[in-house]
Each structure stands twice: as C-alpha cells, then as structure tokens.
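Weekly sync, protein design subgroup
Attendees: M.S., D.O., the rotation student, P.L. (late)

Item 1: inverse folding check
M.S. brought a backbone from last month's batch and wanted to see whether the design step gives back something sensible before we order anything. D.O. pointed out we never logged the input encoding, so this time it goes straight into the notes. Structure tokens as presented (293 positions):
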C-alpha cells in the first residue's frame, strides 16, 4: 500500500473514531428530534378512544361497523441529508488551531454519522465557483467512510466561491424534499434568490465557517496578505489602527448582511470558528430546530 494511501486511511480512521463517538454520545437523540421525517404513512385503523382527534376518524370503516374507528399514522422516518461543501481556496485559511477545511470535514463527518444512525441517506455536493463533484445519497457506514475519504483528499479544479451556482445545481439534482447543510465561509457573489428557491423546496441549514483573522487583524506590522481565491498579494500595515478598524467594520457589515439574507430566506444558521469546539454551536442549532417544530 502506498504511503499516501496509508496516511489517508489513518486520517479517515482518526476522524471516524472522533466524530462517530460524538454522534453516538452527543448528537444522535438531538439530531433525531431536530430532523424528524416530514411525512406521515398510514399504518392501521383502531377503535376510537376518548381524546382521539375527530379528524382522524375513518368514516367508511365507522359506517361499516357502526362504531367509530380512527386511522393510525406512523411518522415517515427516512430522510435524505445533503451536505453542500465549499472546497474553494479560501477554505484553506486558518490561523488559530485548524483550517476551515479541516473544521468542515469533521462537521460533515459528525452530521453524516448522526444521519446514518437515524437511518437517513447522505449525499454530498463539493463546490467552488462551479459544481466540482456530486456523491449521490446512500445509506451505510462504508458510504460514509468513502465520503470522509473524499472530504480529506478532494482537490478542486477551481479556486473561487459561488453559493448560487451550488444551490442551482442542488435544487435541480435532488427532486425529493431533503435536509441540506451548506458549509462555507459564504464569501461569495449574491445568492439570496437561489437560497430562497432551495429552501422552498428543501429544508436548508447554513453553517458559516470563519477564522478570527477573517474578521480582525492582530497588530503584526507590515505583512503580505494573499487572497487565496484570486492569488493576489497585497502588503497591509496592521500597525495602523485605522486599517484594523476599517477591516473589522467591513467584516461586521458583511456578517450583518449575511444574517439578513438567511433570516429573509427562512434558513436556520449557525457560525463556527476555527478557534472553537463545534459541539456547543451544533447543539444550540439542533435545540433551536427542535423548539420550532
């Protein structure tokens, strides 16, 4: 076995152990409550009991037996979960403990393991400023391990980010209503219309990944800053308080606009930084969804 393959499998195993453990012990019950199946499937009829809803009475059976009977439904449990993963160059940025890409990989793995424990199918769309790769939804552990392998090892063809393009592809590719997580820093051309359309048809959740230094410069003197997506290099004087203030103001404005887009589109969202554990933000998101149901 080639050394590269060995290293890759070691990484897959490490992520599997960590994220599967989190799914088992922390998220499986909360995931189940937050993402219940949408439909109801008819199961049987039984005699009416005090407290049953009048609208569940089956009038045909009631007439036949001259006694009230009600229809019993089971919740349709099976869901399809789609993970829309931003693989653009800006995801390679991270200054505190990990890259945004590493954070996204672990988050996808946690969500994927939580989904298969729930008997849901999982599929993935990798996108940059174009659709890079589509892994159709399937069940099972070997499918999840293949997804994790792809998450670690995937090399995108393009460097830019276009959320709208990813959402257009997703909306046309997935016909049946599903739950979709978009993992990105959302630094992209406008995508509000595509998000609204996608969320009408599906249940979309946005997970914004960020690094502290996307939003705030430390005082490091004159430093070269490379735009990962365009490759452009600029020298920035971080000792200048005005430069730092302007950079922070720009980031705050960008985040406020993003929040507005998610709210207007009716999309649940959370923000997770490369400097923090994703456990608390994810649990808060699940709890918020539970309360809304």
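Designed sequence read out in the meeting:
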């Amino acid at each position: 076995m080639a050394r590269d393959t060995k290293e890759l499998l070691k990484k897959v195993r490490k992520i599997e152990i960590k994220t599967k453990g989190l799914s088992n012990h922390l998220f499986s019950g909360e995931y189940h409550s937050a993402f219940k199946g949408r439909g109801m499937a008819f199961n049987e009829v039984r005699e009416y009991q005090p407290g049953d809803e009048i609208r569940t009475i089956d009038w045909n059976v009631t007439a036949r037996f001259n006694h009230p009977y009600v229809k019993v439904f089971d919740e349709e449990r099976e869901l399809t979960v789609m993970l829309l993963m931003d693989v653009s160059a800006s995801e390679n940025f991270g200054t505190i403990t990990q890259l945004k890409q590493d954070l996204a990989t672990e988050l996808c793995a946690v969500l994927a393991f939580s989904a298969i424990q729930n008997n849901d199918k999982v599929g993935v769309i990798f996108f940059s400023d174009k659709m890079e790769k589509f892994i159709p939804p399937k069940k099972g552990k070997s499918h999840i391990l293949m997804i994790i392998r792809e998450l670690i090892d995937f090399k995108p063809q393009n460097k830019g980010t276009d959320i709208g393009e990813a959402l257009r592809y997703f909306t046309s590719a997935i016909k049946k209503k599903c739950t979709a997580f978009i993992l990105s820093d959302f630094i992209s051309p406008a995508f509000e219309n595509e998000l609204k359309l996608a969320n009408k048809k599906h249940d979309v959740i946005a997970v914004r990944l960020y690094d502290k230094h996307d939003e705030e410069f430390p005082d490091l003197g004159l430093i070269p800053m490379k735009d990962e997506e365009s490759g452009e290099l600029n020298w920035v004087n971080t000792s200048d308080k005005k430069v730092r203030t302007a950079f922070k103001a720009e980031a705050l404005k960008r985040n406020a606009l993003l929040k507005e887009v998610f709210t207007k589109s009716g999309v649940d969202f959370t923000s997770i930084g490369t400097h923090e554990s994703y456990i608390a933000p994810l649990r808060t998101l699940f709890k918020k969804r539970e309360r809304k149901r």
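Discussion: The chain has nine helices and ten strands. The chain has a mean pLDDT of 84.
Action: P.L. to compare against the previous round before Friday.
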